[in-house]
Amino acid sequence: MTTTALTHIASLVTNDPSLGNGTPLGLIQDAAVVIEGDRIVWTGESSKAPATDNVLDAAGRAVIPGFVDSHSHLVFAGDRTQEFNARMSGQPYRAGGIRTTVAATRAATDEELSANVARYLAEALRQGTTTFETKSGYGLTVEDEARALRIAGRHTDEVTYLGAHIVSPDYADDPAGYVDLVTGPMLEACAPHARWIDVFCEQGAFDGDQARAILTAGLAEGLHPRVHANQLSYGPGVQLAVELDAASADHCTHLTDADVDALGQGNTVATLLPGAEFSTRATWPDARRLLDAGATVALSTDCNPGSSFTSSMPFCVALAVRDMGMTPDEAIWSATAGGAAALRRTDIGRITPGARADLVLLDAPSHVHLAYRPGVPLVSAVWRSGQRVV
Ligand SMILES: [Zn+2]
């Protein structure tokens, strides 16, 4: 198989603390990476790189692992420009706006939905995202949820069943009946097409008992839980996520000390989604508090047309550093290795031998520039599974 070396990398983020400067980022200065097929086979100092078939000179620029966006909602149609505009004119955000997207998504064809996913994925790839998770949740019927998951599965392996996004408008007077549907016929139709099950545990969506019933039913069908937890208010979501060993509790904006302790001690990753707070002018989640308690923190876009219509991980990194108390190193780790942890993956989010060859070449000498130069398109080249895709 052909080998390719990327040499003279000014600063390489490996996410292996045993390498380089010994920090969690495992930074190596004047580094090289060797790719063979879809894998990384060698990482180290440029002067010690083995001979390879091809050599690419990074010319003093930085390389980081491809971003792992572990939370998005890309199977949708329509947009909610007017709702955003109204919110920025002073109206509050509530969970019910999802109904607008549900109506548009049900009315769209398979081709329209798939083209939409492809479009936002291409957008994300240009900004360095090489792995992404996406969810159903804008169909809310057996047919429409299963369809969303089939379409998502054409674009990624990380597919999440979110029939419990909100109570379907068709069941407005019978929320218990909707939970029966989500845990019964809808689950049966959706489970073959998903890896994960998720629930929006929130006032106006599903309470703790309903969320527990939904996640437990998913577990019995072989789906692993993740939870939209404690976004708009304090509630039982985080504790439930930790108790059920969910891979991730997402949002984590309103946390009690007990919630923070639970995340600090459990295996559940706290996934923070600053695009949502940005787009709803809400209070930022306190990443510092979680990190100081020992929690594993991931950063993700929550890309969706209602509350966070950004596909940009660099934007989320910049927000996390500016407004959530993260250092640039912590934010880069959370957007790469943290996202991998939130998907319980060890083959991505790091640049070490054996990992999938997902790399981002930055038009900057250091990863710190992603926060230092917010909004600037610094992604210069992207490799996914060893193939240069940008
Ligand atoms: Zn979400």
TrEMBL record:
Transmembrane segments: none annotated. Residues 249-366 form the Amidohydrolase-related domain. Zn(2+) binds at H71, H73, H228, D302. Its main location: cytoplasm. Its cofactor is Zn(2+); Fe(3+). The keyword Hydrolase applies. It is found in: Cytoplasm. It catalyses: 4-imidazolone-5-propanoate + H2O = N-formimidoyl-L-glutamate. GO terms for cellular component: cytoplasm. N-formimidoyl-L-glutamate binds at Y138, N304, G306. Belongs to the metallo-dependent hydrolases superfamily. HutI family. This is Imidazolonepropionase. It comes from Streptomyces globisporus. The gene is hutI.
